[in-house]
Amino acid sequence: MKYGLTKIAGALLAAGFAFNTAAADITIAYPSDPISMDIHEQLSGGMMQLSHMTFDPLVRWTQDLQFEGRLAEKWERIDPLTVRFTLRKGVKFHSGNDFTANDIAWTLDRLKTSTDYKGLFEAFASAKVIDDYTIDLVTTEPYPLLLPMATYIFAMDSKFYTGVDENNKDKSAIIKFGNTFASNNMSGTGPFKVKSREQGIKWEFERFDGYWDKQSPGNVDNLTLVAIKEDATRVAALLSGDVDMISPVAPNDHKRVKQNNKLELVTLPGTRIITFQMNQKSNPALQDVRVRQAIVHAINNEGIVKKIMKDFATVASQQSPQGYLGHTPELEVRYDLKRAKQLMKEAGYENGFKLSMIAPSDRYINDAKIAQATASMLAKIGIKVDLKTMPKAQYWPEFDKCAADMLMIGWHSDTEDSANFTEFLTMTRDEKTGMGQYNCGYYSNAKVDKLVNDANTETDTTKRAAMLKEVETILHNEAAFVPLHWQNLSWGANKKLNMKPVINVMEFPYLGDLVVAE
Amino acid sequence: MTQDKNMSLLEVQHLQIEYPSRHGVMVAVKDLSFSITAGEIVGIVGESGAGKSTIGNAIIDLLSPPGVIAQGEVYLNGNKISGLSREQMRQVRGSKIGFIFQDPMTSLNSLFTIEQQMVETVLANMDVSREQAYQRSLDMLAAVGIPEPELRIKQYPHQFSGGMRQRVVIAIALICEPELIIADEPTTALDVSIQDQILELIKKLCKERQVGCMLVTHDMGVVASVTDKVAVMYRGQLVEMGSTAQVLGAPNHEYTKSLISAVPRSDLKLVRFPLVNYIETAEEIHQLDIANHWLGQSQDQKQYQGPLLKVENVNLRFTTKDSIFPSRREYVQASNNVSFEIHEGETFGLVGESGSGKSTIARAIAGLYTPQSGNITFEGVELTELKSEQARRPLRRQMQMVFQNPYTSMNPRMKVADIIAEPIRFHRLAEKHQVDQIVSDLLDHVGLGRKAGLKYPHEFSGGQRQRISIARALATRPRLLICDEPTSALDVSVQAQILNLLKDLQDELNLTMLFISHDLPVIRQMCDRIGVMKHGHLVEVGNSEQIFTAPQHEYSKNLISLMPSFAAFSKQNLQIAK
Amino acid sequence: MFTFLLKRLVQATIVMLVISLVAFAVKDNLGDPLRELTGQSVSEAERQKMRTEMGLNDPFVVQYKRFLINAVQGDFGTSYTFNRPALEVILDRLVATLELVFAATLIIIGLSIPLGVYCAINPKHGFSKLVMAISSIGISIPVFLTAILLMYVFSIELGWLPAYGRGETANWLGWESGFFTLDGLAHLILPAFALASIMLPLFIRLVRSEMIEQLSSEYVKFAYAKGLPQRRVWYLHALKNTLLPVLTVGGVQIGTMVAYTILTEKVFQWPGTGFLFLDSIQRTDTPVITAYVIVVGLIFVITNTIVDLLYGLINPTVNLTAKG
After folding, report:
1. Same domain, B106 and B32
2. What CATH number is given to the structural domain containing C121?
3. Residue A184 CB: number of other CB atoms within 10 A?
4. How many domains does chain B contain in total?
5. Distance CA A69, CA A53 (A)
6. Among A394, B127, B155, B522, which residue is least crowded by beta carbons within 10 Å?
7. Half-sphere exposure of A170 (CA within 13 A, CB side)
8. How far apart are alpha carbons B526 and A358 in whole angstroms?
9. Residues B240 and B366 in one domain
10. Which of B203, B227, B262 is the last residue of a domain?
């Protein structure tokens, strides 16, 4: 009867009792739970949340997108290819094993075998263990994103994961749909240990007694993570007090959460950009930059943010959100219907033309509605849109075939870096290098390709920023794609949870540091 | 309750039963008075709508809503039993008045054993122990002639035959020793041979136990064979009451006269039934010049030497229990080596009790069933050998069926004119512009009037529907009309009209008829030759006269002997056939 | 009896085969499982490699044959998201679904029979009219709305009952269920009522119309004529006959309720098979989808068989031996 207990606790609190002892049990609801206990099995928001709860990375992002040492106490670049990390002493794994540099080296090797991570860690050579608490991370060429990538290096307990299990299978194996040792067992250094797990239903965590970070103010002892898929139900669970914190809060429910005096709603501008790609291959009209410009000018993305997103998004004029290296403040939102018509006329499409559009209906917030609104906006400049929206399961195979003239896609940069957007969305498609993998616009600009490739080996941040800003400017001027908005992030929580210090734009609050007032 | 010793067992005084509705009050029974004394059987006779059944229901206060007793009183043994409270009335039911319903199939609850249904009756009405109630039930079952009562009492109603079930119903009605029995059409749903037994049983029990009996029936034969007195009802009013012999032999009232003259008799054959007023009115048949009309100009009238229809050694069986193992399958042989012939222009009757297979033969001839073996030959053409629907169609057109309940065979959403025109259009028998005229003439000719074509089937009474169905059958200009119990669901006066109509049509169009009925007197009125069926066997075939006067087969003899006697019936105004 | 069961078995096998074929035929249209399994940065070549490993690139016939051979041995494949045999995943969740269906069935039976009978016996009473009015509106309210409404009133506004999930369970005679704990029962009430609301109006109407029909039947009239008290006629004779068709229609309907749980489970995040099914569709977890469809099909067949057997037990006129 956990349910009743929180009620009683609430009543006592109201009666003026204050608990100073750090003993809090909370329940958090997300749309879905992590799919495995093996943090290298999938790169996803859920898995990152799990990683930060049960493991620690070398470094982690702060709220203002700076780096903060975790298992690494300090780090320095000793040559263009090498960064030396000094590791924290006295850190213990859940299994009781001591954490050393060997665990980092072992973890890096394992990351390079993971389907989801191997691409991101391609630039890394093997780590050099200098001593138990010193390790050099070496890249094959100068690599500016070494530190962002270090946020993905969560030390795994190499002793724990080495050897064979009772089925004589390698304990370190990563198999996507297999029943491996690592997918059912866990030993990290993180603030929480997994107590029990019912997949698809809930995970129960308890605080790890031997957690190294005694500075952490976190006082949550038992944390339950539950999956509540339905937006309305998740909010209802928060409103009724069944759970203490939820994310995300659907835009329609913001008002209700705000009006409740026991609850707090926190929103942050997010980093996931929502765009339309304009397929130059399937529709020749889109090869004309004036037509693309006309489309960008015709779409009132400010209106979409206001009316459809209920201000729960940030209007975008480029890929990189604020805080990213490539973010170029000079680039402006371009809605201008007159100009759009003018451009169409100049391009010789005064009478408009037809194009097909596809969008998912359950992937991004209000995705289908946004597509419908866009279609009607384009109608104003004579472009007749044949729109199809479909569930994401059907959408992605269609997208992979680039099966329409305009296609919606949202992107979050796994590296929290501007170049990542361009690599996947706007660089020239190249089967070999894997660049432009999601470039269904078939936009291709040698200068952009070169700038991004150069930026990827430029370790001087100032120079690199200039390159990435140039890329954004070119894409803007050539109307390579239609930027709509960055989706905001939202959390709703009981006010006794001091939520603000632990949340960040990456969508995975550092729950180990969460303080609950009791 | 005051008791008047001078009263008879049942006194009904000035009874008026009404059914109020939004459209006004329907008076079902008007100012009815009669009485029954102990041991006396009084028949209440009349046609549907006469209100005869409501009388019984009113006496025991079981009128179906919204029916009410508007006026009058009912006394039982001098005690007023009308207007009692629900509980007081319950104490009258079962213990003082027993009730027998028409259909033993539906009056017993199929989910309870006979024992449960009998014992609960005893316990509800008498102050006895369960064992005593059980014993009483056994005795009563034995008294109504159910063999092995100890075994049978444990069984469910469906394990009993219709006649046995009606015995159970009678046993239940009598088990609490009531003073009066109300029997509402107790034998209508039963076969002739069973009917006789049940009537004898009721008669015997009433006389033995000095129980009064009110016997509601539409069947003059039943009235003749068991009742002491008879009351004739017409549209809610008692038109005549008197001793049975007097009412049947020398009726006073015009209605009674017409009713009696419409009864098919087994003792003599009529040319036509006399059509008297008081009977549901049919439009006068339009005089058509049949010979020159479309109806009489069929192309099919070619001459064929030999019988029109020949049925030879037809075998047909139905599976009653299926199994994947052939040895465990069970069948019922509905037709066992049946052979007969029907000649052009004659009416051949098939008579037998339910389950004798007579309808099965009819359906096999019409092509609705395929026999396992044997031949059916129509005008020399072997029907069972025609494989394609195409080849069968012209022959099927020449054979039409008229069913017992025509309503189920009519599409309720189609207008009558379309129902009749359908076969003409389907077989392309006439030019498009002629069809409407033909349909109108047909409707006129069967006595419905042409306006009837614009209505829907549900707007007609049973007799009128049967006319529609006859008109539809005629629309293909058939040569053979198969009538399967065409009048069994109709009142006797309407039946007389339909039978007359069939006879007229046969004369005009030189129709050949296969006439199927369980009703021997009807068969006698209609048929030239008769076949008697029993359990799938055709036991005897012969001329109508011969079968009725000198049957050969034991079964035929038995059937003929069980027919109610019509000797007491008046012979006024009858055209007796030579 | 033996023949009856054998026939049912053959029927069931054919049904299962057809279902599996259909499920298998549409699975390619459900989307690409790899998309849900892998992160966004994984290259197409890497995905193709996995597809080949998983046998997804084999021709349809090869895949189906492999599926059938495994299915006969009880192996419906391994869930992509659960890393466990699909059948096992479903059977785990089936307990929760059956618990919900069972609770809803109790509610339906507990409410529809008294209400239906009351409305049949007192057709003119104001309460009967109210019940019938509510039930005719109820028939057209989607379960989704009912569920949200219940949640709003009883969880958010009144705070009496939890809004989501299954709650604590306890084990009794090997049955792990929320019926045996207060918390489990509290969690069960709203979803069970929401689920029951789909069929309740139908059942009330069914019971009412059957009862009205029985009350106007000959045997009821004869029962009165025998001098039986009204209560006995109503509640013994008419009711037993009423329940017979209710059992056949109702039994089958309750079998289909296993499938109707989908929306209810979605709204209440009830960890049952319906919710699992929806989730699997979104994740393109085809082994679970296929196994679910087959299991639900099997449940239909089983409930139908049980209903027929029960019908035979209650109705003496039905002889299953003869029915073959």
Report:
1. yes
2. 1.10.3720.10
3. 14
4. 2
5. 16
6. B127
7. 6
8. 79
9. no
10. B262
Which among C6, C9, C212, C226 is the top mutation candidate for probing chain B, defined by the most B β-carbons within 10 Å of its own β-carbon?
Answer: C226
Nearest to A419 by CA among A326, A321, A323: A326
Q: What token pair was written down for B362?
A: 């009819």
CB-based touch B/A (3+ pairs, under 8 A): no
Same domain, B44 and B187: yes
Other CB atoms within 10 A of residue C301 CB: 18
In a shared domain, residues B155 and B257: yes
Residue B218 lies inside a defined structural domain of this protein: yes
Give the domain extent around B417. 305-562
C80 and A183: CB-CB below 8 Å? no
> Does A180 lie at the interface with C, CB-CB under 8 angstroms?
yes
SS3 B247: helix
Give me the CATH number covering residue B455: 3.40.50.300
In degrees rounded to 5, what are phi and psi of residue B311? -115, 120
Residues on chain A touching C78 (C-beta within 8 angstroms): 177-179
Shortest Cα–Cα distance, B49 to chain C (Å): 19
- Cα–Cα–Cα angle for C93, C94, C96, nearest 5°? 70
List Cα–Cα distances, B285 to B272, B445, B467, B501, C104, in angstroms.
15, 5, 12, 9, 65
Distance between CA B529 and CA A212 in Å, rounded?
113
Among A1, A115, A396, beta carbon nearest to C50 = A115
Distance from CA of C86 to the nearest CA of A (A): 11
- Structural domains in chain C (count): 1
**Contact A157/A210 with Cβ under 8 angstroms?**
no
Which pTM does this prediction carry? 0.73
Q: Does C146 touch chain A (CB under 8 A)?
A: no
Chain C CB within 8 Å of residue A411 CB? yes
Residues linked to residue A82 through DSSP beta bridges, in sequence order: A79, A138
Q: At C178, phi and psi to the nearest 5?
A: -75, -5
Chain B neighbors of C311, CB-CB under 8 A: none
Cβ pair C221:B103 closer than 8 A: no
Secondary structure element (H or E) that encloses residue C22, with its range? helix C2-27
d(CA A337, CA A377): 9
Residue B351 forms part of a structural domain: yes
Largest Cα span, chain A: 75
- Digitized pLDDT (tens) for each residue of chain A, 518 residues in all: 444 444 444 444 444 343 434 568 999 998 888 888 899 888 888 888 999 999 999 999 888 888 999 999 999 989 888 999 999 999 999 999 999 999 999 999 999 888 888 878 888 988 899 999 999 999 998 888 888 889 999 999 999 999 888 888 888 888 876 778 888 899 999 999 999 988 888 899 999 988 998 888 888 999 999 988 888 889 988 988 889 999 889 888 888 899 988 899 988 888 899 999 999 999 999 999 999 999 999 999 999 999 998 888 999 999 999 888 899 999 989 899 999 999 999 999 988 899 999 999 888 888 999 999 999 999 999 999 999 998 877 788 788 888 899 999 999 888 888 998 998 899 998 877 778 888 999 999 999 999 999 988 888 889 999 999 999 999 999 999 999 999 988 899 999 998 888 888 877 889 888 888 86
* Closest by CA position to A94, among listed A5, A188, A196: A188
3 state SS of A515: strand
A393: nearest CA partner in chain C:
C31
**From the CA of B516, how many Å to the nearest CA of chain C?**
29
Sequence-ordered list of residues with C-beta below 8 angstroms from that of B351, at least 6 positions apart, any chain? B358, B516, B517, B518, B520, B523, B530, B531, B532, B533, B559
Domain identity same for B333 and B257: no
- Expressed as residue numbers, the domain containing C109 is 86-214+242-323
CB B515 within 8 A of CB B352: no
